[in-house]
């Protein structure tokens, strides 16, 4: 594995990445244990009753799509606080994992978590998913769980994933896609406002068909895509509305931050309920 620059002061993120770091990096240090460190919407399959179950199931679904097995070499783009990579390591490993995140507080929290669990083969780096600090063909698997919509751009991440994957390497993603574009000035204003608040570049507003076409253009084959919005958005929104969760967010973020968080989540769920946005699970292979 090539040497990886980890000096935060030498890395100059783009404007979009700074916005994303502000969006996710405002929490206090105690937040690393909120929801056991999970940040995804959760996959609320039948029989799942709690957020932790749903969030863990989403991560395990990614591992299944990737077909991880002991000895797999995984690159993970935007792993949050590290819980997902450590969970994959326990379930499918041992794995060799290099995960990159542009939110410094996430990297710090993930490193603490790995150290506490005594795991040395899962490493976390402060770096960009669209400029991976790794050589070509070094990984057998690439993962991005619910983050590529933020990247500037998703296409650049896919090309980087393709570059660092060895021939036959597998890609899995949980992401958002546009199933019906807004029409009229009011709908467009709502849509644009939610995208701006979530730091989503316009180039990343793509349909499922467009998503598959982009993967083919990059070079991926065996592309599969499943729309699972009904198993993600409603359950996640109910979790955010629980009184205990609202109190926790208030403690972590303060009144203003909590209010912003509610508005962001409500706006995204409304896009889903209006039939504009879907949650998709994507898998593909480098030939």
Give an overview in words.
With 287 residues, this protein is α/β, with parallel strands linked by helices. The protein has a domain at 8-176 and 204-227 and 280-285: 3-Layer(aba) Sandwich (Rossmann fold). It contains nine helices and seven strands, in the order H-H-E-H-E-H-E-E-H-E-H-H-E-H-H-E. It has a seven-stranded mixed β-sheet, with helices on both faces. Helix 3 (83-92) links the parallel strand 1 (73-77) and strand 2 (96-101). Helix 2 (51-66) packs across helix 3 (83-92) and helix 6 crosses helix 9. The longest helix is centred in the C-terminal third of the chain and has 31 residues, at 243-273. The radius of gyration is 18 Å and the shape is globular. It starts with 14 loop residues before the first helix and ends with a strand. Mean pLDDT is 86; it is low at 1-12.
